[in-house]
Amino acid sequence: MAGLRFRLRQISRRFWFLPAVMTLAALALAQLGTWLSTNPGTNDGAPTWLYGGGVDGSRSILAAVASSSIGVGGTVFSITIAALSYAAGTMGPRLLQNFTEDRGNQVTLGVFISTFAFSLYSLRTVTGGDEGDPFVPHYNVTLALILALCCIAALVFFLGHVTSSINTTRVVNLLAADLRSSLLTATEQTDPEQDVLPPPGAEFWARAETLSAKKGGYLQLVDHEGLVDLAVETGTVIRLLVRPGDYLYPNSPIAEGVPTLPDGIYSRLTVGTSRTREQDVEHAVRLLAEVGTRALSPSTNDPFTAIDVIDRFGDALCTLEDREWPTGVHSSDGEVRLVAATSDFGGLVDTMFDQMRQFGAGAPAVSIRMLEVFAVAARVLDDPGRRAVVTRHATKLRDDALGATRNADDRVAIERRHRAVLEAAG
């Protein structure tokens, strides 16, 4: 069931989904307008603002609205996609994904397409001359004029909206919001009274049966509740060897079961061709890190964007101050039933800063800012293990930066920031 809901959410985010719904609604509305115009009695006492022209005028209006809406919509979106493709070379493919998943862009496209479909469908009902008794769908023509005004408003909105969406800071903020949401979903507030069962030891899994992947692809979603229910029904304990974001290679081991391997494990795992941010925290980190590393490439040379990314990573680290990382152990009635592989704080920080350190070692401003962020995080984080992770990255950064920095003042600044991290970590 969780996999089905996940698929439905993925479909609802597609660029075509909302425009398709709006187009179907427009066709239904066109049919309703035609019925109102043909049903005797519905035109009695019709409002004065209703279109009252003849057959030729109705055809001209509907044809003009249909041709202009699809022409303007197609031209504007084609040019926009070309501009976004060029900008994505600097900010990464996430920019295009933001564009296609943005509801404002989807509604704008839906307005143009639904107006075209409504006008074209209504045009077929206009008759006169050699075609028989004259008929004008007055309601449809009136609504087509209103939709034409909506197209103008949508065009003005879209031009302003898409201009701001290409802004690098906005892209960074969107990715940072995704990262923060993923972290809050993946972690929970520390509860000293919570009783967490430990996972079984290595000797327990020595007699486990192994499940292999049927096909290649990224693990996108794990139905933990469904796996726990399956384990309870079959009286087994399941351990997942992979986590969301891992690539499943064909015939590679992905799960174990003790004392037997129950059927139905694979059906509770959603595998696709790309990573998603539903349960994959490191994917959200990687998307933001990609913007930072692209900014540090020689072709772009934009350290200010890299510093923006580093600040957002510092925000994420400080958000984890009092939040507990999941153990992956799921129980039922006091018995361990599922042990799921999870990300940890160390892996998260590695994904954040390893590539940023490697690409930014030759930029003293970036290295200094990264060390300043480490110092703040070391003061905020309470767990000694997490402070040790931050200190380890600060030391690696200090070593790489000193090796790539010749200026004596820059080297002194780097050393001073590194000592501040060690003092903050205690």
Automatic annotation (TrEMBL):
Segments crossing the lipid bilayer: 61-86, 107-127, 139-160
Assigned keywords, A-Z: Membrane, Transmembrane, Transmembrane helix
Source organism superkingdom: Bacteria
Pfam families per UniProt: DUF2254
Protein name: DUF2254 domain-containing protein
Organism, as annotated: Dietzia cercidiphylli
